[in-house]
């Protein structure tokens, strides 16, 4: 016979908090006050400086005032924010992820600006650079006074960077760098480029001032995705660099790939920001748009769409948070980052597309954020690792068999 005398009385049970449609599974309970403060700072900045203008920037296909935006992002600690020292904020991985989510809720192009600056260019210098390189470049990059870019992808070598043709050869004490890089965020506004090249000793990274003779960065136009983002080609025509331009602490693909893993982590969070903005637009629209005499949010099929989107959105945020905790504990593996990017970007695109169906014809208008986020995510889906590449990373991890070649 069970003893019920020890069960708590109903009056002693904690009162359940009210259901929060914006946080339906209580993920905010996992966040520390410092995490929430970072999130609110970045959200407020984006609401003030990006959201009022982003539709116009996107329609015009440009990001005016990028240098001023970079300095403002530096002033709130968003550039290289998870790095330590040299003017960087030293924030946690979870805090960096929350910042990426809020930035991409405004626009993927803004998150890309921050991600390339901090997780690619600054991260490469911070992890693999000499002390002199760190002191020369990182403080200015953290403040936004210097914008950086990261040159890995080439016109004929995207998913297979080992085949890159950009080459650096020794000439006395100097290096001479020749080649082309493609689809480079921040390229034409950067003051410094981290460029990866073949050498006689393997793939090496080079810190290249963009005012060096022979370096140019023509901007890529006619994009239908990431339109509010600066995207460029990098052209190196026998760029002469001093011996100390090479990153001394790494040789081989593990250098750029570790940088990409760090940047992909930010995408795991960022994609959920784009999804959240689209989902919130759909919910608001469904509650006010009337058909057949009542709001469409009162119809079963619309509610089913909203419920399914909410489930995938918050599962994705929960996954991002879990990976962030693993990164903070030094336990995040590249395969786990692939898991996150594969799932979250794929689900984010589906949320945007489903949101568009709720908005109907209005869903294609720039008066609403949905189509802008959907088209941006088409780029996010394939940059820093296509769906197929992340599937094969996971396939190899699951089976122990390499299907890449």
Automatic annotation (TrEMBL):
Do you know which InterPro entries this protein is assigned to?
Answer: Acyl-CoA_Oxase/DH_mid-dom (IPR006091), Acyl-CoA_Oxase/DH_mid-dom_sf (IPR046373), AcylCo_DH-like_C (IPR036250), AcylCo_DH/oxidase_C (IPR009075), AcylCoA_DH/ox_N (IPR013786), AcylCoA_DH/ox_N_sf (IPR037069), AcylCoA_DH/oxidase_NM_dom_sf (IPR009100), Glutaryl-CoA_DH_mitochondrial (IPR052033)
Transmembrane regions? none
Q: Where is the composition biased (Polar residues)?
A: 1-13
Q: Which cofactor does it need?
A: FAD
Q: Name one Pfam family in it.
A: Acyl-CoA_dh_1
- Looking at the record, the residues that make up the Acyl-CoA dehydrogenase/oxidase N-terminal domain are 33-145
The entry's family comment says: Belongs to the acyl-CoA dehydrogenase family.
Q: Provide the protein name.
A: Acyl-CoA dehydrogenase family protein
Which organism encodes this protein?
Streptomyces albidochromogenes
Phylogenetic classification of the source organism: Bacteria, Bacillati, Actinomycetota, Actinomycetes, Kitasatosporales
């Amino acid at each position: 016979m069970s003893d019920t005398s020890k069960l708590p009385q109903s009056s002693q049970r904690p009162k359940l908090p009210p259901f929060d449609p914006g946080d339906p599974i209580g993920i905010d309970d996992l966040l520390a006050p410092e995490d929430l403060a970072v999130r609110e700072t970045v959200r407020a900045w984006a609401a003030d400086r990006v959201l009022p203008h982003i539709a116009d920037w996107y329609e015009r296909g440009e990001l005016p005032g990028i240098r001023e935006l970079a300095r403002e992002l530096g002033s709130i600690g968003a550039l290289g924010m998870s790095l330590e020292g040299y003017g960087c904020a030293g924030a946690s991985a979870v805090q960096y992820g929350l910042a990426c989510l809020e930035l991409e809720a405004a626009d993927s192009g803004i998150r890309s600006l921050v991600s390339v600056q901090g997780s690619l260019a600054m991260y490469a210098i911070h992890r693999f650079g000499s002390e002199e390189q760190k002191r020369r470049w990182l403080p200015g990059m953290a403040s936004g006074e210097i914008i950086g870019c990261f040159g890995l992808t080439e016109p004929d070598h995207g998913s297979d960077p080992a085949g890159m043709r950009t080459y650096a050869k020794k000439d006395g004490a100097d290096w001479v760098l020749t080649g082309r890089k493609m689809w480079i965020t921040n390229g034409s506004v950067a003051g410094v480029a981290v460029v990866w090249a073949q050498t006689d000793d393997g793939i090496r990274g080079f810190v290249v001032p963009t005012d060096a003779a022979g370096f140019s960065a023509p901007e890529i136009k006619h994009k239908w995705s990431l339109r509010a983002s600066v995207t460029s080609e990098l052209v190196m025509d026998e760029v002469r660099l001093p011996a100390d331009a090479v990153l001394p602490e790494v040789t081989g693909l593990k250098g750029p790939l570790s940088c990409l893993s760090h940047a992909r982590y930010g995408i795991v969070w960022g994609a959920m920001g784009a999804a959240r903005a689209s989902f919130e637009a759909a919910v608001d629209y469904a509650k006010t748009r009337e058909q057949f005499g009542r709001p469409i949010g009162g119809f079963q099929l619309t509610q089913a769409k909203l419920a399914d989107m909410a489930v995938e959105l918050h599962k994705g945020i929960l996954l991002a948070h879990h990976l962030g905790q693993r990164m903070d504990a030094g336990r995040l593996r590249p395969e786990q980052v692939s898991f996150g990017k594969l799932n979250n970007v794929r689900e984010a695109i589906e949320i945007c597309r489903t949101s568009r169906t709720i908005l109907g014809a209005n869903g294609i208008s720039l008066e609403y954020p949905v189509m802008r986020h959907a088209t941006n995510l088409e780029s996010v889906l394939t940059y820093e690792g296509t769906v197929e590449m992340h599937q094969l990373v996971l396939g190899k991890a699951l089976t122990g068999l390499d299907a890449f070649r």
